[in-house]
Amino acid sequence: MTPILIDTREPWPHPWEKHLPEAQFIQRGLETGDIALAGNPSIVVERKTVSDFLGTITAGRDRFKNELKRARDLHQFHIIVEGSMIDCATERGGMSMASLIGTVAAISRRNCPIHFACTEKYAAQLAFAILTQPWHEANQLTASVKRAEKKALIPIPKAPDGRNLF
Prior knowledge:
6-stranded mixed sheet, Rossmann fold
């Protein structure tokens, strides 16, 4: 099982547990964000429902800006919304559509990508992929290096007088 750290401010048991049977959820305080891979806390996911996201970019904007500043110290910081842009547009209240789009574009361009995952299940699966892909890629690279090292151990051909041919 892949250990996933869940911030103590997140609901417990975590709503994504039912969508990720391959993960072991561990509750732990995170300085920034909501979810990280145990052993690699430099890649962090911020989970948002549609209403949370809209609140964050309107009334909670100052608090959110502080979180984005803290996130600059991370290797990667991703916001995953458990809904679509259409859901956000439908629920945006008094926020204009131009303001919604402009805010999403500005945050994505300046700070971190915002992913609209449409559902809780897809949000969980996307977060898991974002968190675990670097680990899988590193393991593949390590295996490739080991294979190359093994091939390099083939003896260098020698001339009849004992000199290396290469």
